[in-house]
Amino acid sequence: MSDTAALSGPPLKALLAEAIRMLARAEMMDHSGHCSARRDPGTYYINSGASVRPAVTPEDIVAVDLGGSLVEGTARPPLEFHIHSEIYRARPDVQAVMHTHPKWSTLLTMTGRAYAPVFGQGALLGEVPVLDSPLSVNSAPLGQRLAGTLGAGRAVLLKSHGAVVVGANVVECFAMAAYLEENAARQYLALQIGDPYIFSDAEREACRRNLWSQPLFQKAWDHYRSKLAG
Known about the structure:
Layout: H1 3-6, H2 10-25, E1 34-40, E2 43-47, E3 61-65, E4 70-72, H3 81-90, E5 96-100, H4 103-111, E6 130-131, H5 140-150, E7 155-158, E8 162-167, H6 170-191, H7 201-211, H8 214-226
Parallel strand pairs: 6-7
Antiparallel strand pairs: 1-2, 1-5, 2-3, 3-4, 5-8, 7-8
Helix pairs in contact: 2-6, 3-5, 4-6, 6-8
């Protein structure tokens, strides 16, 4: 799926709503997570703060400018819209942002354990820094601090709070969110019985060459999407 195709209006809203339902079904998002997709250089779509995440529809998606003012829809955006606005300001390459509250990834930050690639797809995230604050990112300065911590990366963890992942489109961003949590789950479980094997630099590079693929991201999307009907 090209970025141009992703910027097509209502289909993009439907795609975003589906991603949120999938994250909720997979228990990577609770009642307070939010996802966005760039609408044009100065605005983006995001689920409303009041939306029920497992039941989000395109009607729950609003559009706001980078200051958080509504340009489409009537419901208010989440209080943490600054996460999205400041990343979009800092990263022209980013077309989608997802803020999740995943269990396993958050457990790592609660103990000070660094994220480490312990399976192939987990290596695609690269270095995953931690924003050393558990507070809600509900102001522009905090959003800027988060965007600075993310830098040019693909994900950042928020201490005792959650995760933020970015992507070139909604499907890629969803895959990154899923890979992050799948890796964290394996890392956590392995730590219960010993020290997990951590991929070497050469192995990480091989994973990036072989697994960084839009068809494989779509495969992850389709896997989680199939669970919505269950």
